[in-house]
Design brief:
mainly beta, Pectate Lyase C-like, 14-stranded parallel sheet, 6% helix, 46% strand, elongated
């Protein structure tokens, strides 16, 4: 039963009269520009005094209309507080046109009180075609709080349109939107159209949008536009509603963020819906720009929606950003699984970055296809400029196919910087597994499994892992490589190392299993090396001249290639006029081309499979690596791998473990002056033999004199086996000698003593 209305210092008649008068006032004001709008003259009753400690209690639609009308037209009520009653789950006011709290047409001020939805859903209908600051609450000022409410229905307006709030300058806590929200122009979002000038969103649990959001520009699933605002909390941000921009800036969470905006969420920032527009479209944010620090930090950052952009700058996470930007997954992964398509500057994570950092505590993984018809296309980043991408404890991996015209890479399409920092770095592996197809018809393609076109002060780096391409690469142009198409490092402080290509590479000229072109500069010669790398993928040149084609590098300007191998028909380097040759490098004898340099050592397929080359790649003698870099699972791997099972050498035998032999068996020569021993390794089952001269002695014991027995002893020292002794007693008159015996163990006559 509804309680009697108890309003301190206010009478029922005055509140009802106030509501009726407001209805007439709003009709008059709106009639000049929008036509006559009917506003309900509420007759509900409220209990409570409207303070934070004793808010008005809203039990039904009549109460909600009464509260709304109180706040329309008088600034004296803008700090009044209200709460939806316990047990109320739904209030439906959609049968009449909702005008928002307070009316943005009658006063410039926003709400400054506290409204607690108490977990209830409010269903409403708003259609103010020429209105700005349109939502359940039109405007929220500093000090104002909206919390624990879900909005359903439809909301439409012009500028600053949101399901919960049109323009937020206060605080919105744990609110959700299910309403379809649209705007004729810009700044439109599921929760808030705009969040500015100290406005704050707090997600202690989950803040979500599932409604469809559409507007001209700056459109977001949670917020359309953020400036000098913050989103924070221990919960998560989730968008499951489609976001469409008719112009630019569409994002699953934020359409556009700029100027000192901060997002710090302990949980996930996640989008699962499709995002589309003609430019600057991202699964999480459409565009970020700020000369001051702008931070986006979440436990994990995930996009599963498709990004359909008909123009430039699209990414699974962010369309593009420019300025002092930090994007961080503090405890988990950054991941995109949706496809991303557009024209130019298109990436699985980010279309284009200009300054800033992208950091993940865990992995950075893209599994979505990236498709574009112009330049700067990447499985992770389309265009990377003065930006650092870091996986602190995990790997950076692209699994999606990448299609574009040129300047295209499985990880980064185009990279340039002027800062002495490593642009792409991972604790673990940096891997591309997707196929790359360059659609350029001729000229410079700059396509690589990891990097398309790269011109930075430092190269890319993996601390404990490898840099690897597994995808097939095809481009009808020059500068095509398994790792990098056109790779230039201006001031390297470490060599290029641990690069692997297992995919096929096809281009016209300047084609290589690892690099189409590699131009390495450094004040230290060894930092211009390519070391501990290999390619087992096929290399094909389709150009008429087929110049500068190499099994590892097409054109090389650097120092040396060291401790590396290939399995291609082409020479290890296509053109090395500005390099200093190779050192400790190998190819397969059966595939060796006539143009291969003599410095490359040929080994047979069998020798590659045996583990010999893996052992030799770590060097010999004083040049041997202190810790193995190379390995091979002998019997499974046909050729060496970086890491893997360690290879040990034992005589002419290579095995994955140091030998531990069991008991040897012995066989004496007919003249009894030599003894052959045979033992099997307990680790690898290899069989080893050793022969030594017998130490002849006649140790006639009293009981043996009549029998004429001689004792022969064979001693093995510093051989394949540990030092051991075998003894045999020979009966002189017996034509066939007895087998070796061990007097101390008659049950095992062949065991050495």
């Amino acid at each position: 039963m509804k309680r009697m209305k108890l309003i301190k210092n206010r009478g029922i008649a005055s509140v009802t009269a106030f509501s009726l008068a407001l209805a007439l006032t709003v009709t008059s004001v709106l009639g000049s520009s929008l036509g006559t709008l009917t506003v309900r003259a509420a007759g509900g009753t409220l209990s409570g005094s409207g303070t934070v400690e004793d808010p008005y209690i809203i039990e039904d639609a009549d109460d909600l209309w009464t509260f709304a009308n109180m706040l329309r037209g008088s600034t004296s009520h803008l700090s009044d507080c209200a709460k939806i009653a316990d047990g109320v789950t739904m209030i439906d006011v959609s049968d009449e046109m909702w005008q928002g709290i307070p009316s943005n047409m009658t006063m410039p001020d926003g709400y400054r009180g506290t409204f607690d939805g108490n977990g209830a859903t409010i269903k409403l209908t708003m259609a103010i075609s020429g209105g700005y600051q349109v939502g359940f609450f039109n405007t929220l000022d500093a000090g104002g709080v909206i919390k624990n409410v879900t909005i359903d229905g439809t909301v439409s307006g012009n500028y600053d349109v949101g399901g919960v709030c049109g323009r937020n300058g206060g605080t919105i806590i744990d609110c959700n939107n299910k309403a379809d929200v649209s705007g004729k122009n810009d700044r439109v979002g599921g929760i808030a159209g705009s969040c500015m000038d100290g406005g704050k969103l707090i997600a202690f649990k989950t803040m979500s949008n599932s409604g469809q959001i559409e507007a001209g520009s700056r459109v977001g699933g949670i917020v359309g536009y953020c400036s000098k605002a913050s989103i924070e909390g221990d919960g998560e941000l989730l968008n499951t509603g489609m976001v469409h921009s008719r112009d630019v800036y569409a994002g699953g969470i934020i359409g556009k963020a700029e100027t000192k905006t901060s997002v710090k969420i302990a949980g996930a920032a996640k989008n699962t819906a499709d995002i589309n527009g003609p430019g600057y479209a991202g699964g999480i944010i459409g565009q970020m720009t700020s000369s001051d620090l702008l931070q986006i930090q979440a436990g994990s950052i995930l996009n599963a929606g498709n990004i359909d952009c008909s123009g430039e700058h699209a990414g699974g996470i962010v369309g593009a950003y420019d300025g002092n930007i930090e994007i961080t997954a503090a405890t988990g992964d950054i991941q995109n699984t949706g496809y991303v398509q557009g024209t130019k500057c298109i990436g699985g994570f980010v279309g284009a970055t200009y300054m800033g950092t992208i950091t993940a505590a865990g992995n950075m993984i893209n599994t979505g296809e990236v498709n574009a018809n112009d330049i700067y296309i990447g499985g992770i980043i389309g265009r990377l400029q003065d930006t650092q991408v870091v996986s602190v404890k995990g790997e950076i991996r692209n699994e999606g196919n990448v299609v574009g015209n040129s300047a295209m890479g499985g990880i980064v399409g185009y990279a340039t910087d002027e800062d002495a920092k490593i642009p792409v770095m991972a604790y673990g592996d940096i891997v591309n597994q997707g196929k790359l197809q360059g659609t350029i018809s001729s000229g410079s393609a700059s396509v690589g499994g990891i990097l398309g076109s790269f011109d930075c002060q430092e190269g890319i780096f993996s601390e404990t892992g490898v840099i690897k391409n597994e995808g097939d690469i095809t481009a009808n142009g020059t500068m095509v490589g398994g790792i990098g198409g056109d790779y230039a490092v201006q001031a390297s402080t470490k060599p290029v190392q641990k690069c692997i290509n297992t995919g096929s590479v096809t281009g016209t000229n300047n084609v290589g299993g690892l690099f189409g072109t590699a131009n390495l500069k450094s004040s230290t010669e060894e930092y211009k090396n390519i070391e501990n790398s290999y390619s087992t993928g096929s290399v094909t040149a389709s150009g008429e001249s087929q110049s500068k084609v190499g099994a590892l590098v097409g054109y090389y300007a650097g120092n040396k290639i060291k401790n590396s191998y290939h399995t291609s028909l082409y020479p290890i380097i296509g053109t090395a006029d500005e390099a200093n040759g190779v050192e400790n490098c190998y190819d397969i004898e059966e595939y060796r081309g006539v143009a291969e340099t003599e410095e490359v050592i040929s080994k047979t397929k069998a020798e590659f499979a045996s583990g010999e080359v893996a052992y030799l790649l770590d060097g010999t003698g004083e040049n041997r690596a202190t810790a193995p870099v190379w390995g091979q699972n002998i019997g499974t791997d046909e050729s060496p791998v970086l890491g893997g099972a360690t290879v040990y050498k034992d005589g002419d035998i290579y095995a994955n473990a140091e030998h531990t032999y069991g008991d040897a068996t012995y066989k004496w020569s007919d003249d009894k002056k030599s003894c052959a021993a045979k033992a099997t390794c307990q680790n690898c089952n290899s069989e080893q033999t050793e022969t030594a001269q017998a130490a002849y002695s006649v140790k006639r014991q009293a009981t043996e004199k009549e029998e004429g027995v001689g004792l022969y002893t064979a001693v093995f020292k510093n051989g394949l086996f540990t030092t051991q002794t075998a003894e045999v007693k020979i009966a002189k008159l017996t034509p066939k000698p007895s087998q070796p015996t061990n007097p101390s163990n008659p049950s095992n006559p062949t065991k050495p003593t």
